[in-house]
Each structure stands twice: as C-alpha cells, then as structure tokens.
Specification:
The protein has about 450 residues and is of the alpha+beta class. The chain is built from 15 helices and 13 strands. The protein has three domains: about 170 residues, Triger factor/SurA peptide-binding fold, CATH 1.10.4030; about 120 residues, Roll (Chitinase A, domain 3), CATH 3.10.50; about 100 residues, Chitinase A, domain 3, CATH 3.10.50. The longest helix is centred in the last third of the chain and has 31 residues.
C-alpha cells in the first residue's frame, strides 16, 4: 500500500516514472516556444489521475494535454519577460518535497532502492520539473496577483450567477473556550519516569527490544504500531525538547526521559544522515487522579459563576484563567487555522465540544466539558457559543466574503483567459495531430 501511495505522489512531482516502467516509445506531442511536451509527460499524469480514482477518458487526456501546454506557455513567456527563480528557491523546494518522499518510503535507503538511484541523482532528475513549477507559479502571480473586485462587481456577479450555481454553505460555529489541565501529582509523574527508566534499562541490558516495548506501551498512535519509529525527520519537524535530545544521541543510544507538551518520552536513535534523524520513541502520559479531575471541574464551575453574575466577562476570564496558550490572549476565541477566521464547520470541531455546542444558544456558556487538546491530553473546559449558522444557500447578506472570493476567482479566470489568447498569437505553438480534435478551453492553440 505504501508503494502505491508513493508512486502517485512522485508522479505529481513531474517524473515520468510510468513511462519508464511501461516502456513507452516517447515522442514530442507539443512545442511552445522552445519548450516541449512529451507523450511520457501526458501518460504519467494520466496514470496518476487513474490511480487516484479518475475515470479513464479521452477528455481527461485532452485536459491534461491543455494544462501542460498552458504551463509551457507560461514558461516561454517568463523567458521573454525575464521572470526567474533562484537556485536557492529550487533547492529549498526540492529538499521539502524529497523529505515528504523519504517519510512515505520510510527511509532514504528505501527511496534510493525504489528508484535504484542515489538521493542526489533523484534530486537532479526532479530539478527541472521543480524549477518549471515554481516559474509557472511566479508567472501566474505576476498576471493575477493584483486582481481584486469592487463591491459593485461582487453585487453584479451575484445577480448574474444562476441560482442553482450558488454554493451550499455548511453549518458553522464560532466559539470560545476556557481550558484547564487537571493537576498532576508528583507521584503520578514519578510513576511515568520510573516506568520509562525501567524500559531503558531492559533494552540496554538486552532483556527487551525497544520496538517491542513501543508497540506494547507507547501512547503515540502515529508510531506505536511501527515500533515507535518516526522515519527520517528534520530538526524543525520536531518539538524543541524532543529534537534537542534526538540530535544528541549516538546510534542505538537511548535518551534520558524527555518531557514535551505531548507527555514523557524515551528516544532511541536508529540513524542520522546530515540534518535528519530516524528515531524510535516511547510516549507515556501520567494517569490523572479523580481528585485532580474534580478539582479542575469545580474551578471551571466557579469561573462560570463569576461570569454569570457579571463579575468579569468571558474574555477577561479566559485571559486570566485559561491554560490554552493558543486562545487565552484572544479572549478564548478559537481561530480556524485553515481559513484564518473564527468559523468552524461540523467536521472541523472536536466531537466532545460539538456535542455541547449543538445544544447551546448564542451567548450561552456550557457546563464543564471533558475534552482533549491538540496533543490528545485530557482537559476540562467551558465553552461559549458566539455565533451559529444553519446550512444554507449562499447569499450576500450572510456570505459576502464567500461570494467576494468567488467573484475574484471568476475575474482571475477571465483575466488569464484573455492573457492566454493574447500570448498564443506571439509565441510559436505546434500541436500534435492526435490532439487537434480536443475541445480545448482556450480557443487559439490551433490557430498558429
């Protein structure tokens, strides 16, 4: 299964792996300026889309073909307009993408075995594709980056849009929280230290294998089944305390107990290559006593009482009492990291929180809720429902920003269409006979 996922990802990177495996007799099927599209380029993308579930059709190949000649047109015009990307930018993007491949393959060695090439050779194979992708992105930004719409244009776009084309806006919640962690006693923490130190001793004495203990006891759902192994990661991908310990180990050496926001760990170095390490770890979290849980719940009840009698606002209480560093200074209000707004759809809300929010009225404050933070640790919180909207068809009154985004995107599409039509006239373009029957979106490829 991992290999199939890896193939699909690598194909999206631009390498014509499919052509290599299927022994395609390659040929040039389009020329734009001095840039060529080959049959293997088309087949590689076609294979990728099929692997992702797309239906194999002639129209799909035509769409792939047109996307590729559009990319070549952007590259050709970039040369005319002296638009460039630096070697440093290309290398940074290469390193980032290769890191993802190595993670999927499991190690640098596995990736090298898969391609039968060294990492440096793989990077060299990908380099031109990455440069071209960065270049086309920069050209598109030059063409479309400054485009915006006026309120009048938004209104006009909305009036002219067929009503059956208006998007369905999902139900959304906007809410705030005051979060407390149950206190951990020294005995509970010491018990975790003792258990992890016992694991360390058992492995170092040869009585147990680190990977076996990780499978049996680690609380990290992402790595426990794999013997605690993370695969190759860079320092920046790890929380600071974990990284500091991992990068100071020798092969097979096991760290002292390391505390992070996720809990307590012991770490074993498998291998280090340059700025990356592959490690195993065992994560444990202290048991929380009933007394600690009850204390956190009672404290939240008291805070809610102060808010209800207007002794302080929810926002003031969040800044004073909440232990959630991500929301405390924002008066407890949560921000959606994907949209940058305070609104969350049902699918984006923690299940425990959602169960309460659905029953609340706007402005209401919940009873203490047992929930989990982003690390999976048990927490107690009280919630305040700020706003809630039912699922509905988009309208200007409630969804101006969404419609503004649609209007902007439409304006960009129109601008790009006009740009392509203009540049088709001034660039050399040759379309292969096999694709001349395609129903192209941009009318003009065949007029040269």
């Amino acid at each position: 299964m991992k290999k199939l996922i890896l193939i699909a990802t690598i194909l999206s990177f631009g390498m014509s792996l499919f052509a290599q495996e299927k022994q395609i007799i390659d040929k040039v099927v389009a020329i734009v300026g001095s840039n060529m599209v080959t049959l293997s380029d088309i087949e590689a993308q076609y294979f990728q889309y099929q692997a992702q579930g797309a239906k194999a059709t002639a129209d799909l190949k035509c769409q792939i073909y047109e996307n590729m000649i559009l990319q070549k047109l952007l590259v050709a015009q970039a040369a005319i307009d002296s638009v460039e990307v630096t070697e440093k930018e290309v290398q940074a993007e290469l390193d980032s993408r290769l890191l993802n491949f190595i993670r999927q393959a499991g190690s640098e060695q596995a990736l090298e075995e898969y391609f039968n090439k060294s990492i440096e050779e793989i990077k060299e194979d990908f380099k031109d594709d990455v440069r071209e992708q960065l270049l086309t992105g920069r050209m598109q930004n030059n063409i479309l980056g400054e485009i915006s719409v006026t309120p009048a244009e938004v209104n006009s776009f909305y009036r002219e849009l067929p009503k059956d084309s208006l998007p369905l806006i999902e139900a959304e919640f906007e809410y705030a929280q005051i979060l407390l962690y149950p206190d951990l006693s020294k005995d509970e923490i010491q018990a975790v230290y003792d258990k992890l130190n016992d694991f360390k001793t058992r492995v170092e004495s040869g009585k147990s294998k680190f990977a076996t203990l990780a499978v049996l006891y680690s609380k990290d759902p992402g790595s426990a089944a794999n013997g605690g192994e993370l695969g190759f990661v860079s320092r920046g991908e790890l929380v600071p305390e974990f990284a500091a310990a991992a990068f100071n180990l020798k092969p097979n050496e096991i760290s002292k107990v390391v505390k992070t926001d996720y809990g307590y760990h012991i770490i074993q170095l498998i291998e280090r290559k340059g700025d990356q390490v592959n490690v195993r770890h065992i994560l444990l979290q202290p048991e929380i006593s009933f007394t600690s849980e009850k204390s956190a719940s009672n404290k939240l009840d008291s805070i809610a009482m102060l808010i209800s009698v207007d002794s302080l606002s929810f926002e003031e209480a969040a800044m004073r009492f909440s232990q959630d560093k991500d929301t405390r200074l924002n008066g407890g209000k949560l921000i959606n990291m994907y949209t940058g707004t305070g609104k969350f759809t049902i699918k984006e809300i923690n299940g425990e929180d959602l169960a309460y929010l659905k029953k609340m009225k706007i402005g209401e404050i919940s009873k203490p809720v047992i929930s989990a933070d982003k690390t999976g640790a048990k927490v107690y919180k009280i919630l305040k429902l700020i706003s809630m909207s039912e699922a509905h068809i988009a309208n200007l009154e409630k969804d101006y920003q969404r419609i503004q985004e649609l209007a902007t995107e439409k304006k960009k599409q129109n601008e790009l269409y006009e740009w392509v039509l203009e540049k088709q006239k001034s660039n050399y373009i040759k379309i292969d006979d096999e694709y001349k029957s395609c129903n192209f979106h941009y009318k003009g490829w065949l007029s040269k």
